[in-house]
Amino acid sequence: MARNVAQKLIASHLVEGDLTPGSEVGLRVDQTLTQDATGTMVMLELEAMGLDRVRTELSVQYVDHNLLQTDEKNPDDHLFLQSASERFGLWFSKAGNGVSHPVHQAHFGRPGATLIGSDSHTCAAGALGMLAIGVGGLEVAMAMAGQPLYVALPEIWGVELTGDLPDWVSAKDVVLEMLRRHGVSGGVGRIIEYHGPGLAQLDAMDRHVIANMGAELGATATVFPADDAVRDYLEAVGRGDEFESWEADEGASYDLTEHIELSELEPLIAKPSSPGNVVPVAEVAGEEVSQVVVGSSANPGLRDFAVVAEILDGQQAHSQVSVDINPTSREVLADLISGGWLGALVGSGARIHQSGCMGCIGMGQAPASGRNSLRTMPRNFPGRSGTEEDAVWLCSPETAAAAGLTGQITDPRTLTDSHRIVYPRPVMPTRYANIQDMLVAPLPAEEAAKVELVKGPNISSLPDFEPIEDSVSAPAILVMGDDVSTDEILPAGSQVLPFRSNIPRISEFAFTRIDPDYPANARAAEGGHVVIAGRNYGQGSSREHAVIAPRYLGLKAVIAVSFARIHWQNLANFGIVPLEFDDPADLEQIGVGDEVVLEGVHQALRGGTSVPATIGGREVALTHRLSDRQVDMVLAGGRIPLTAQEV
C-alpha cells in the first residue's frame, strides 16, 4: 500500500497498537530534547525513578529560556542541569549557545528519526523528515528510561503547496495562512504533512518556520519529506553523510487534504492576542509601533536575520522604534558577522541580544505599556511578553523590518516605492558556521556514575500526590471560556520561571492571570477543588508546571468542552481527571462556587467513557477519553507512582 511520509515514520517506530486513527499507539523514541524551563523537572523525575543512564539513541539538554541572571536562581539551575546531564548521559548545550530547536536541527536532527521534547515547538524538527512531537516533561523522562511514547494516532492532513512565493512574502506567511484559515485548534488530533511542487523553493530553514508553528495550530506534529533541500542543508552544516531520503510513495493519500497556492499569498500578521487572529498586513497598516523583535524558533534561520539587515542597510530605524535582534544560535551570530549583515544591523541602530529565547518566553524585552510590539515569534498570548496589557503582533521578518523603518505597521510590498528598496534575496553560504565547543558530550558511564547532582537552595523535590478518591465533592473555583492557554494557567516570564524547580513557590502564580485570588481560594478549599473551561483548554506551552502547580494546590479534576493534546496528557500524567461535557451547553449553566459531585469515580473510569456528575445540583453527563493505561495512572495518583508500583 502506498504510504505518505508520516505513515512511514510511524510504521517504522511502531511498537504497540496499529495504524487506526484515534487508537492509542506506542512509538519507539530515538531522540529527546529538554530545555531549562522544563528540564529541571525532567531531571528531578529521572532522579525519582532511580534511572542510571538514558536509554535513547541521543538526549540533549539545552539552556535557552532562563538566561537572565538577576539573582542566583537561574545560574544555580544551569549548574544543576549540567550536573544532571553528566550523571544521566545527556549532551549539554550551554547558556548562550542558542535556541534548542535550530541548534538541534543543525547538530543532531536526522531524517527518519523520532524526537520528543518537553517543549511544544519540538515539532519544528519535522523540517528534516523527522517525526517530532512536543510532550510533557514526564513523557520525555519515561522515554529516556526506555519506554515508548504513547499517543492517540492522529489523522494525516496533507497540505499541497503549488506555485512560487511572491516578493515580500516568506515562509512565516505560509503558516500564518494556515492559522488564518483554521485557527489555533484546527490541527488538533492531526499530523500536518506538506507536499507538492511548491516545496522546491522552501529550504530546510523555511520548512522549520512552518513546522515550528504547527504547535499553534494544535497539531501533534508537522512533517516534510527528506528530499534534496534537506540533503543540501545537512551538507551545509557538515553532516551530509547523515542524509536519508524519506518521501511519500507515488499514489499516497491523506485523511484530509488542503491546498495552498503560494503565488496568491500576501504578507499576513496575527493581531493581539492570539496566533489565530490573522489578517492581511495591509488591513492594519498605519498602526503605530514602538518595538520590533526578530528571532525565536519561529524565524531562526540566517536568512531571517539577513533579510532584515539588507532591508535596514544604510538606513536608521525609526526614532520611536526599538529594533531588537536575538540571534538564535552562536553560529547564526558568527555567520551574520562573516556575511557583513551584523554591521548593517548595528549601523541601523538595532539592539543585539544574546542567543536565546529572550522575549519569546517573556525573559526580558517587555514592551512599553499601551504600545504595539511586532515580533517574528510564535505566540502572543496575553501578558506573555512580560507586560500585563501587552499588544503583541506576530509577523514575518519582512513585515517586522518594514515597521522598524517606518514606525508603523507597513505592508512591506510598499517599501519598493516608498523607500526604493528592491526585495532582498540574501545569498546563503555554502557552509554554515559550525561551533562545537558549547556542546558538552556525555561522560562515559563509569565517570557519570560518580557525579553528584548540584542542587541550589531553590531546587525542591517532586511533591507526593495522593490518588483520586472514589467519591469527590469539591467546589468549582474557576469557570473559564475557550482557548485558555498554559500561559494563563501558569505564566512564563522573568518573575515566574526562576521558580520552575520550586513547586510550592511557583504554585503561588497559578491561574493568577485569570483570578489573582486562585491560590488563596484553592488552599481554602480543604477537600480539593475543580476548574471548568470551554474549548481547547490548555493550548500553548508543554510545560507540566501548569498541571503540577494547581495539583499541589488541590486540583482534583478539570471539566472542559475539549482539551489541547499536551495539557490533556499532562493532567493524566499527574493524576488529575480530565473530563469533557457531553453537551457543551452545560457550561453556560455553571457558576463559580458550584459544588461538583463525582460518585463512583474508579468504576466509572474503568467501566467505559461515561462519568455521571452533579454540578450545582444539576445532573451533568461527562465523558473521559483516557486509555486503560492512563486510567491506571490516574487511579495511582500519576505516572510516577504507577511506575514505582510496577517496579
From TrEMBL:
The keyword Iron-sulfur applies. GO terms for molecular function: 4 iron, 4 sulfur cluster binding; aconitate hydratase activity; metal ion binding. SUPFAM superfamilies: Aconitase iron-sulfur domain (SSF53732), LeuD/IlvD-like (SSF52016). InterPro entries: Acnase/IPM_dHydase_lsu_aba_1/3 (IPR015931), Acoase/IPM_deHydtase_lsu_aba (IPR001030), Aconitase/3IPM_dehydase_swvl (IPR015928), Aconitase/IPM_isomerase (IPR050926), Aconitase_4Fe-4S_dom (IPR036008), Aconitase_put (IPR006250), AconitaseA/IPMdHydase_ssu_swvl (IPR000573). Its EC number is 4.2.1.3. Keywords: Iron, Iron-sulfur, Lyase, Metal-binding. One of its GO terms (cellular component) is cytosol. Gene3D superfamilies: Aconitase, domain 3, Aconitase, domain 4. It comes from the Bacteria. GO terms for biological process: tricarboxylic acid cycle. Residues 526-583 form the Aconitase A/isopropylmalate dehydratase small subunit swivel domain. It is an enzyme of class 4 (lyase). Residues 8-284, 285-407 form the Aconitase/3-isopropylmalate dehydratase large subunit alpha/beta/alpha domain. This is Aconitate hydratase. It comes from Candidatus Brachybacterium merdavium. The lineage of its organism: Bacteria, Bacillati, Actinomycetota, Actinomycetes, Micrococcales.
